[in-house]
Amino acid sequence: MLIDTHCHLDPSYFPEGAEETLTRARSAGVTGFVCIGVGSLEQTQSALQLASRRADVWATVGVHPHDAAQCDAALQVELQKLAESQARVVAIGEIGLDYHYDHSPREQQQAVFRHFIGVARQLKKPIVIHTRSAPADTLRILEEERAQDVGGIIHCFSENKTFAQRALDLGFDLSFSGIVTFKKATDIQEVAAWAPADRILVETDSPYLAPVPLRGKRCEPAYVLHTARFVAGLRGVALEELAQITSQNATRRLGVSPVLHS
Ligand SMILES: [Zn+2]
Ligand SMILES: [Zn+2]
Questions:
Q1: Which of 39, 49, 169, 241 is the most buried (most CB within 10 A)?
Q2: What would the pLDDT profile of 122-135 be if each residue is shown by its tens digit?
Q3: Regarding beta strands 200-202 and 172-176, do their DSSP bridges make them parallel or antiparallel, or are they unpaired?
Q4: Which ligand is nearest to the CA of 47?
Q5: What is the 80 CA–ligand 1 centroid distance (Å)?
Q6: How far apart are CA 185 and CA 183, in angstroms?
């Protein structure tokens, strides 16, 4: 059993609907899906809808750093209402900083990031962090906004060991995506081999970043199996053990409980 702690499943990525994708993943042994509700209000609602109708799907609510420029006060209010009222919302996110693409001005990224850390603290929900090419500012803002009070997950972990240690110290678990299977990802592999067993998770970030040997394909939650197998290999443990500890960690961190399929 495996839990995909980070997937995007709305119709903009899966125009045929999520059902067959979920079925394929369940057959591959995936017992839980955390569907990330970012992009637009519509996409957030779509994630919530998916989660509200299925026992093995949960959702998050947030504003991706790419979309920070479009996040006005009205949207902030609307999203907070959803995060407060919907029982299937297990975290705030993904929020954070992306200085690689800079789709939104950095000042706005930071302001939105700070705002939603505040929301997470208010609602006592963990935070899902997206960080790319912005390690120092990410850690600084997490500290300044006292994100440690709620903790959370560094999703799609792609930093080095120094960053990993500071994130762990701040109460953030490390979630590994297909990137860890890429040949050149030696820093990330080092972290995946070293990180404490009770602080690691696996995810697909579907539809992006399909793991080796499916790299380049549209990624879907079933593929989390390849990432888990690779991380198990790095750590010298059996896939079953890796699946068990990462699922336990997801349950502890997000309150999600796996649903067994017969
Ligand atoms: Zn992300
Ligand atoms: Zn994502």
A1: 39
A2: 999 999 999 999 99
A3: parallel
A4: 2
A5: 20
A6: 6
Ligand nearest to the CA of 95: 1
Question: Could you tell me which residues are beta bridge partners of residue 152?
Answer: 127, 172
Distances from the Cα of 217 to the Cα of 21, 175, 213, angstroms: 14, 21, 10
CA-to-CA separations, 220 to 10, 18, 79, 102, in angstroms, rounded? 12, 10, 26, 26
Q: Walk across the sheet containing 30-37 and list its strands.
A: 2-7, 30-37, 57-61, 89-98, 127-132, 152-154, 172-176, 200-202
In terms of Cα–Cα distance, which of 192, 223, 193 is closest to 206? 223
Residue 183 phi, psi (nearest 5)? -55, -40
**pTM for this structure?**
0.97
Residue 61: name the closest of 46, 84, 44 by CA.
44
Query: Helix, strand, or coil here: 205?
Result: coil
